[in-house]
Specification:
The chain is mostly helical. The chain has 7 helices and 9 strands; from the N terminus they run ββββββββαβαααααα. Helix 6 runs antiparallel to helix 7.
Length: about 270
């Protein structure tokens, strides 16, 4: 038989069929694909229609012979299906067995819409904070080196002009980067509550650093009052978005935590 090539229904990679009556695997993601003339019944129960393909040996299996597992591989969750053969069970032990009743009780599809909103709010706020920090850094350098007010030593420095601006701006940009990274984690169910709480902590640190820099750089006496109003307005807006997103993340994350606790209590599972 001449080998036939089709696209994998999972990832779109190449699946090369060597035989029409056996399972072939995608060359990219390894997903099993049935042959055109392959028997669709379970190999262990010939009168029962197969429900899955063992990811280890490639046998077609029904629900009686199927074990589902979820494993973290490279930071991504994968669903693994194996049959009950000893070698297939052994090869799948790296993944956690799935409890169907536990999966039903911990289903969090109800939060998909609000999770998307939380991600957009916190992500936008944190991104604006990163842009704000970059603008603050560049504008302070401009003021200190290219304006008479800055050249009159109104902005202090330790050894060479601009060194305090650079050091404190690096600190501010680092904090804003942490804010952005944490803001993107509110979409992960098991990290949502912790991410929301961490956002509050980082936001408070960012506010303290901003106030310290403003006082340190003598901005209250800067002759252009519109500059200070612009900085305050931009920072307050970005902080408000992060604050609201963190508040929502804590609220929804707490509900999810309680849902998990109720499911474990109902099924008598320990943490």
């Amino acid at each position: 038989m001449t080998s036939e090539v089709i696209l994998c229904p999972v990832c779109g990679g190449k699946v090369i069929f060597q035989a029409a009556d056996t399972v072939s695997r995608c060359s990219y993601c390894g997903s099993p694909v049935l042959g055109k003339s392959q028997d669709r019944n379970c190999v262990h129960h010939p009168d029962t229609l197969a429900k899955a393909v063992c990811n280890i040996c490639g046998d077609l299996i029904c629900e009686l012979d199927m074990q589902k597992r979820v494993g973290n591989y490279g930071g991504k969750l994968f669903t693994v299906v194996n049959c009950t053969k000893r070698e297939c069970v052994r090869e799948s032990e790296w993944a956690r067995p799935v409890n169907p009743e536990y999966e039903r009780l911990t289903n969090m599809d109800w939060a998909d819409k609000i999770d998307n909103s939380i991600l957009r709010i916190t992500g936008m706020g944190a991104l604006l904070m990163v842009i704000f920090e970059l603008f603050f850094f560049l504008s302070m350098l401009y003021i200190q080196f290219l304006t008479p007010w800055g050249l009159s030593d109104n902005i202090p420095y330790w050894f060479i002009r601009g060194d305090q601006v650079i050091v404190l701006s690096i600190v501010g940009n680092f904090i804003s980067a942490m804010l952005l990274q944490t803001g993107l984690q509110v979409y992960i169910h098991e990290r949502q509550l912790g991410a929301g709480l961490m956002l509050f902590v980082i936001l408070v640190i960012e506010v303290v650093v901003l106030v310290f820099r403003g006082l340190q750089f003598n901005l209250l006496n800067f002759p252009n009052g519109m500059y200070l109003l612009f900085l305050l307005g931009a920072f307050v807006f970005a902080s408000f978005l992060v604050f609201v997103g963190a508040l929502l993340a804590i609220r929804i994350g707490w509900k999810k935590r309680k849902q998990l606790e109720r499911a474990m209590a109902e099924l008598g599972l320990s943490k």
